[in-house]
Amino acid sequence: MKIKDIGERALIQRISGLLSGADDIVVGAGEDDCAVIDTGGDDYLLVTTDMLHRKTDFPLQMTGRQIGWMSVAVNLSDLASKGARPIGVVMAMGIPPDTEVEFIEEIVKGMDECASKFGTRIVGGDTDAHDELTLVGTALGMVKKEHLIRRSGARPGDLVCVTGHPGTAGAALFALDKKITVSQKILNALFEPVPRIYEGMALSESLSVTSIMDISDGLALSLHDMSRAGGVGFKIYESRLPVLPDVKRLLKEREMLEAAVFAGGDFELLFTVAPEKLDKARKACPLTVIGEVIENGVFIERAGRVEELKARGYEHFS
Amino acid sequence: MKIKDIGERALIQRISGLLSGADDIVVGAGEDDCAVIDTGGDDYLLVTTDMLHRKTDFPLQMTGRQIGWMSVAVNLSDLASKGARPIGVVMAMGIPPDTEVEFIEEIVKGMDECASKFGTRIVGGDTDAHDELTLVGTALGMVKKEHLIRRSGARPGDLVCVTGHPGTAGAALFALDKKITVSQKILNALFEPVPRIYEGMALSESLSVTSIMDISDGLALSLHDMSRAGGVGFKIYESRLPVLPDVKRLLKEREMLEAAVFAGGDFELLFTVAPEKLDKARKACPLTVIGEVIENGVFIERAGRVEELKARGYEHFS
To answer: A12 and chain B: CB distance < 8 Å anywhere?
Structure first.
């Protein structure tokens, strides 16, 4: 049986099943957005890694600076989704030998800019001759033990919330695909995504959130991941999705649902809050309530009808 | 100008020059085998990353298990060279979609085996569809602040020491290239290298070592790296290189020098010790004295003649 026959999520489950655990590993491989290590102090150490490469992750329209920014941002978004304060990023770079030195320098400047913007640094790395430009970042973070929030933890009756405007990155992808000119704001959602580091830290410190993850693989897949992790279900409302007016103008209704729910690429946080703590969460960061936690299943209400929301979105090997 | 025109070490210097520093980054990119972060406790946090891929790093004779072992060992060797105790490894895996699932499972078992052998675990990772099998590990470690040893720190008059038997991995490469059958012991030096985690920890705790790094890129390049880092020189003696008798039988004199000094692939530690502390270092781990620290230059004495030792060895993009 080949990897393409089983897909990414099944592969990760098989790999995770082969790995040994240990008492100091609070969250291990495949369980959450980051691994969580107990090093004995007041804080947990969090670590996450992401592999990006030219063909899949860096459309030709992206500048070197944006490629570098993205390679750091994708890792910081995982830290953000656990409320962690970033403390360092290392970057392994696979580079075709005939690449211009200046292009790599632009990429490195973009990495440094993104790390600096969120209070951390590129602290180390590796370079390697590779056929395809391949960037593998690993981000480290820390969070007070009592502030760690998991993908699990949602309870029926909790409110489902998101930061920002899901669908913007998907709209940019759509526009690139159809060669439609769109605003820089929409393109930047795809090319220079902003990891929600400060929002994640504020939410975790607010002690108002019961579960959280990021939606870079799309809202639908993330809801299914949280459903599996927490043993609960979700119902969201299409009418409440905080899609940007610019995006609404650009896309037909079906396309908008596709962008906001399935396309992925938005580095926003998806989280659940007990209704009586919503004010606390709102004080932590701007948010939109898009639905509620239910007993089981993942559903969306559209034009008065409740439909099952399929676990479809961005997956490798498919 | 292209990357291949400047080579790996110059590229790393240029990249490092573009990165911002910070007070809590004790050792940053390009300065040592690991980055060192001060998280405020009694220990430093160390992090290192290495990118390996099929064409360059995994000869076809390697099993899946050995590929997995190697991908972890190469990172642990960097931790070993700073005396760190490993606390976790994450692994990003770029996998061609038509790879057999069983082969990936063998690789993962090899990773788990190597991590477990040295007291740590694979705590997380990422999977990605990639044209070429590409494994990027990142290892985290901790070391007491007073036990951290750098590449710099050697003083003229110090003794130059190595662990193990440099040249064994080079001999295996030679045998594979010439299709000569050699012992499993020699092949394993190349295919299942043993990171010197316990030796590194014992050496750093012995407080006898003035500078240290690993020699996986070859003894010659490592001596030049330590020379640049510490502002000192080195003189080593060919006759003192602890080459295995099996390797001596296999190789002619010139080939032996090539294997032991230039070929790389040995995951041994190169370190310097003040003469009066040699007994302390010997109690920490088996070692061989191969030369001494001098004011400047890097030299080797061969058959009574002192020659300059060129900065030649394993470099990407060349």
So the answer is: yes
Domain end, chosen from A146, A166, A188, is at: A146
CA A120 to chain centre: 19
How far apart (Å, rounded) are the C-alpha atoms in residues A126 and B136?
10
Q: Under an 8 A CB cutoff, do B105 and A138 touch? A: no
Cα–Cα separations (whole angstroms), residue B150 to A256, B35, B68, B84, B162: 55, 11, 28, 12, 16
What pLDDT does A317 receive?
A: 62
Domain that holds residue A269: 149-308
* 8 Å CB contact between A44 and A26: yes
* Neighbour-count burial of B56, counting CB atoms closer than 10 A to its CB (0-12 exposed, 13-18 middle, 19+ buried): middle
Q: Where are the beta strands (DSSP E) in A74-144?
A: 85-95, 122-129, 134-144
Cα–Cα dist A23/A43, whole Å: 16
Which residues of chain B lie closer than 8 angstroms to A90, CB-CB? 29, 35, 47-49, 138
Which residues in chain B are closer than 8 Å to A29, comparing Cβ atoms? 90, 122-125
Reported as a pLDDT band with limits 50, 70 and 90, residue A253 is confident
Give me the CATH number covering residue B10: 3.30.1330.10
b/e map B102-134, b = 16+ CB within 10 Å: ebbbbbbbbbbebbeebebbbbbbbbbbbbbbb
The answer to whether residue B282 is domain-embedded is yes
Contact A111, A91 (CB under 8 A): yes
B222 and B269 share a domain? yes
pLDDT tens sequence across A146-204 = 999 999 999 999 999 999 999 999 999 999 989 999 999 999 999 999 999 999 999 99
Within a domain: residue B179?
Answer: yes
Q: How many domains does chain B have?
A: 2
Question: Is the domain of A159 the same as that of A124?
Answer: no
Alpha-carbon gap, residue A191 to A185, rounded angstroms? 10
Nearest in space to B75 (alpha carbons), one of B14, B138, B23, B154: B138
Considering only alpha carbons, which residue of chain A is nearest residue B120?
A: A22
CB-based contact (8 Å) between B159 and chain A? Answer: no
Same domain, yes or no: B268 and B282: yes
Domain contains B266: yes
Spatial CB neighbours of A253, under 8 Å, sequence gap ≥ 6: none
Bridge pairing between strands B233-237 and B288-294: antiparallel
Rounded to whole angstroms, the Cα distance separating A257 from B203 reads 60
DSSP single-letter state for residue B306: E
* Structure tokens belonging to residue B110: 């090899």
Instruction: Give the alpha-carbon dihedral of A29, A144, A193, A164, to 10 degrees.
Output: 110
CA dihedral (B193, B198, B199, B200) in degrees, to 10, reads 100
B314 assigned to some structural domain: no
Under a CB-based contact definition with an 8 Å cutoff, are residues A251 and A171 in contact?
Answer: yes
- Please, which pLDDT band fits residue B76 given cuts at 50, 70 and 90? very high
Interface ipTM: 0.93
pTM for this prediction: 0.94
Q: Does B19 touch chain A (CB under 8 A)?
A: yes
Min distance B191 CA to chain A CA atoms (Å): 19
Could you tell me if B181 lies within 8 Å of chain A, comparing CB atoms? Answer: no
Question: How far apart (Å, rounded) are the C-alpha atoms in residues A100 and A300?
Answer: 48
Q: Helix, strand, or coil here: B194? A: coil
Q: Are residues A261 and A209 in the same domain?
A: yes
Chain segment A284-297, per-residue pLDDT in tens: 999 999 999 999 99
